[in-house]
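re: that chain from earlier
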Amino acid sequence: MRQVPGRLLWLGNAGDLWNPSNVIAAGIEAVVELADNEPAVTLPRDLIRCRFPLSDGGENPAWLLRLAVESVAVFLRAGVPVLVCCSAGMSRSVCVAAGGMSLAEGRPFAKSLTEVIGTGPADVSPRLLMQFQQALGAAV
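^ sequence. v structure.
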């Protein structure tokens, strides 16, 4: 689990949710899960949880991508510490976190993506990236 500097935004992987005490200890209040291939983990009831089953393969509905990104943006605007996680924490979570930052801060998706990628390992699926660029192009 790693924090995007200067923001109440963390990126993580599915394994981070297996020990929710670490999530809570970091001050995180909301979790946005993105892995379509991971089982749902039981989290404490005081954590806000959003689950958007996305795949890296590029066959996600645009409305689902948009809903995931807008949810992260709402948390960021409201000052709610949020963890965005997918299976490995290097593709879906990176794109959704960057999209949420773009909407919340009114800046280009590419600039936010570069900043998020700079926080640690990333391996963004080209097909997923193309989907995000198409779905969010006019908005960010």
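Helices lie at 20-25, 62-78, 92-105, 109-117, 126-136.
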